[in-house]
Amino acid sequence: MTRAVGSIIGRALRKTGAILGGLAVALAALHCGAAVAQGRQPAESDEATIELAPLVVTATRVGESTFDLPVAIDVLDKAIIQNQKPMVLISENLPRVPGTVVTNRGTYAQEEQIMIRGFGGRSQFGTRGIKLIADGIPASTPDGQGGPGLFDLGSARSIEVMRGGFSALYGNHSGGVVQVFTEDGPPEPTLSVRLMGGSDGTWIAGTKLGGQTGRLNYVVDLSRAQTDGYRDWSRAAKEQANSKLRIALDGGGTISLIANALNLPEARDPLGLTAEEVKRDRRQASPAALTFQTRRTLDNLQGGVVLDQPLSDADDLRVMAYTGTRSNEQYLAIPLANQNAITASGGVSAFDRRFAGGNLLWTHATTLADGPLTLILGGEYDRSSEERKGYLNALGERAALKRDEDNTVDSWGTFVQGTWGFAPRWGLDLGLRYTEVRFDSDDGFICTPDRVTAPGTRPGTCSGSTAPITATNLNPDDSGSRTYGAWTPALGLLYSLTPSINLYANLGKTVETPTFTELAYRPDGGAGLNLDLDPAVSRHYEIGAKFLLGADARLNLALFQIDTDDELTVATNGGGRATYRNAPASRRRGVELLLEAPLGRGFAGYLAATYLDSAFTEGFPACTGIPCRSVAPTLNVTTVEAGNRIPGVPAFTFFGELSYAYEPLGFEAAVSLYGQDKVYVNDRNSETAPGYWLANLRGGFTRDLGRLRLSEFVRIDNLLDESYISAVSVNDANGRFYAPGAGTNYLIGITASYSF
User: What pTM was estimated for this model as a whole?
Assistant: First the structure.
C-alpha cells in the first residue's frame, strides 16, 4: 500500500513543473490587491495587512524579511525545532526546507550529511560543500569540513537555510549556508527539565536555565542522548552543552559570550552493507565493523565573543572572535595487509586540532538617488592547525605508529555587499568577495634507508611495517602545500509585482576547495598529498517568485541551474577511507516549491517539494577498485559516461505535514509524509538505493499550572514500517554502499518548565 501511495504521489510530483507557471499566474490574479508587506521601497498599499515573513540575517547580514530578499532562503523557528522532537540531530528539521536533504547513517560516529541542491553528496562523513555557522561562529573548518553535530537544538531559536548564488559571500563552499541561532533567555528566570525515552534503548535528558537580570540575558542548555541503535554495533552517546550570555551596553550595543561543548564518549560504527547483506539482515553490522571494532570518540570545545555596537544613526559595527579545540580518534576497517604497507597510514586516525578566527563587519545606511542604500564591508580570518597521527588497527586495538604530520589551514576573506531600493518597486542586492585558503602539511613519518639509521630520527619512524626498506620500497617526505584563491560575485534583483507578490532573479559564482581529508590520499595509491586536486567552480542562476497569501500563508517558487567545472567527487572508497578526484563538468537543474497555509478549524498544512536533475556533463575515467593506478589504465578503471547522475543525490524530495491544534486543551498533533526518489550509489550508475516514503505521527498536550508549564508528547516515526536506505557510501569499492534506516520507532517525552 505504501509503495502504491508513493507511486501516485511520485507521478503527481513529476507533473509539478508543468503546472507551476499556471499556478503562479492564478495566484497573482487572485492576490493582486492584497496588503502591503514591508519592503525596501514598497509599492502603493491598501488598507489590509499581511503578516510579515520571518526576518533573517544570512543573506545580507542584516535583519530582512525573507519575502523581500532575491534569494531562496527559509527559516525554521523555535516552535518547529523544539516542539515534540528529540532535539538531537539536524535531520529532525531540515527535510522541511526545499532543496535540502539530510542523510542519517544511523550512528553518531559518522555525523549527518547535509546536501543543498545536490552539493555535499560526496561526503563520507559529516558535511562538505555547505557552510555551517552557529551564532556567527563557523561550525565548518576553513577547508570546508562541517560537523552539524555541534548544533545545540535544545536551545535553538531558529535555523536559516540559504541556497544558491548568494552563498558565495560566505566563502569556501558550493551549495549554501545553514546557520543556527541560540534563543534569548525569557524575561523571567526559567528552569526547564526534559526527559525522553523510546525504541532501541534510547534515552534523552536535558535541562535549560534562562532569564533576564538587569542588563544580563542568559541561557544555558545541557543534554545527554544515548541509544543502543537500530543496527548491531551502533550503541552511542552524545553529551552537549551550549550557553549564551548577552550584556546590554551603553549606547544601544550588546556583547555576547558564547560557549559550546560536544562530547562523544562512545560511538560505534556498524558501517555500510552490501545489497545481499541488506536482504539477509538489515539490522546487522558489517562483518568488518565487528572484526576491527570500528568506532569513534570526539571532544569539541569552543567559545566566542560577539560585539554589536551602533556607531551612529547610520553606522553599526560588529566584531566576532572565537577559539576552540577538537580531539578525534576513529577506528577504520582496513585489511591488515593494506595497513602494513610502508606508505599506508594505518587503520586508526587520530588528531588534536586547535582553531581560531574572527570577523569584522561595518554597516552603513544611507540613500542613493532617493532610494535606501545599505552597505556592508567585512573581513574574516580562520585558522585550523592539527597534529594528525595514524596507527595500525590490530583488530580493535591501537598499535604501531604509521602516520605523523602537522597540518595547518589558513583562510581569509574580504567582501563588500549592498542593498539598494532604487525605485518604488525595485530592489538590487550585490556583493563581491575574495577568499584565499592555504594548506600546509609537514610530514614527520619518513621511511628511507638513510632515515632509518639517521641520528635523531623521530621515535616510531617506519615502525609497524614488515616490508624491508629499500630504494624501491620506501615512504618519502610527503610534506607539501597549496594555496587556492578566488573572487566570487553575487547579484540579485527583486521586483514587487503587487504588495503580496515579489519576483526575483539572482546569479553568483561559488568556489569550493578540497578539504585536508580529500587531499590526504592519492587515488593511484602513491605517496604524498593529492595536490593535483583543483577547486570546484560553480555558476548559479535562479529565478523565483514569493507570494503572501492573506494574513499568514505563503508560497515560494524557485527555478535554478548550476554549472560546475572540476566537480569534486569520490575516486576510490574502501575500508572507511576515500580518495578524491575532479570530474570535468556537471550541471544541476531544478525547481523548489514551498506552500504553508492555515486550513481553518485548527488545521494547518505545510508542503515542500523539490525536483533536481543533477548529472555529469562530460565523461571521465573512474576507478572500480583500489588501487586505481594511472600507470596501468586498464587496471580497475572504467568510464563514467556523460549524462550519468551524480551519485548520492535524489531526483525529487517531498515533505508534507498536516497539523491540528486545539488551544482550549493545549492539544497539538500532526501527521507528516517524507519521500525521496532512488539514489545512485556510484558514478557509473550501476546500482541504486530505492526511493521510499515515510509516514510519521506525533501528538501531545501543553498545560499551564500557574508558574509551571507541563508538556507531554508521543511520536511514532516510520509508522508503516517501510524498509529503506537512509544513507549511502558513494563509490564504495567493496559494494558496501547501504546504511539501512530504522523501522517503526517511538519516542515519549515530558518537559517541565518553572518560572521563578
Answer: 0.90
